[in-house]
């Protein structure tokens, strides 16, 4: 029987996950919860209110959740609240994603359509691999990181905890992107990026703050 699941977050990422779940056998979404519910319904699913609805859902047998929040800190905090209540946070991979047999994803990871996880890739808990991103052999993505749509991480790239690699960004093989760094859309990362740095451009340079 399909596992009943609640989506925490009814914004853009929540809508992407709702569409992922239409294609993913094994899960039956019951609705969204959101701190600011946008209305009674979204994309054919009920919006059940804010997190005050969660105990009732647990009591009704909904024991699985996905955190659909783009902001890494908010995602971590929401995951901690859900797990403290007893919700499981499975990894969700769109069926069109390509995952090598040796690629591993941790709990709460979301992999959107047509992403590629190559040989020996590691994706840490609660990370997002967005639509069409390519993670080549031996790439290691830290917990809570977000690899944006169409980003290309060639062999051996390491992305630190909570870092954001923007849409369409590319990296030189084996570079390391530090924790909480932000790589702007379309950047070409040709050297290691320090923790917390914001980089953009071709080649990527520190962005004005
Ligand atoms: C499904 C989805 O939608 S997933 C979404 C994944 N998210 C992304 O891909 C977004 C990534 N974010 C970006 O690229 C943003 O532009 C950021 C985070 C790098 C910068 O955003 P902000 O902090 O708001 O900076 P802001 O827009 O004010 O720009 C600051 C400066 O950096 C420059 N800049 C911003 N982004 C870039 C970029 N990608 N490349 C080069 N320069 C850039 C701006 O032109 C500006 O320069 P100026 O001061 O000389 O005019």
Automatic annotation (TrEMBL):
CDD domains xref list: LbH_AT_putative (cd03360)
Domain of life: Bacteria
InterPro entries reported in the protein's UniProt record: AcTrfase_PglD-like, PglD_N, Trans_hexapeptide_repeat, Trimer_LpxA-like_sf
Domain PglD N-terminal, first and last residues per copy: 4-81
Family statement: Belongs to the transferase hexapeptide repeat family.
Protein name: NeuD/PglB/VioB family sugar acetyltransferase
Organism: Siccirubricoccus soli
């Amino acid at each position: 029987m399909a596992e009943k699941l609640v989506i925490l977050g009814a914004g853009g990422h929540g809508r992407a996950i709702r569409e992922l779940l239409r294609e993913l056998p094994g899960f039956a979404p019951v609705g969204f919860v959101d701190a600011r519910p946008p209305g009674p319904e979204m994309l054919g699913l009920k919006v059940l209110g804010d997190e005050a609805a969660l105990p009732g859902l647990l009591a009704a047998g909904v024991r699985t959740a996905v955190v659909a929040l783009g902001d890494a800190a908010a995602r971590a905090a929401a995951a901690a609240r859900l797990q403290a209540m007893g919700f499981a946070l499975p990894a969700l991979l769109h069926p069109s994603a390509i995952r090598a047999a040796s690629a591993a994803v941790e709990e709460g990871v979301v992999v959107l359509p047509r992403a590629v996880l190559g040989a020996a890739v590691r994706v840490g808990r609660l990370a997002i691999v967005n639509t069409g991103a390519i993670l080549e052999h031996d790439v290691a993505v830290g917990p809570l990181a977000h690899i944006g749509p169409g980003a290309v991480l060639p062999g051996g790239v390491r992305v630190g905890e909570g870092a954001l690699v923007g849409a369409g960004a590319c990296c030189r093989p084996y570079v390391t992107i530090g924790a909480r760094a932000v790589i702007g859309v379309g950047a070409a990362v040709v050297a290691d990026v320090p923790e917390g740095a914001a980089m953009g451009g071709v080649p990527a340079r520190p962005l004005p703050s």
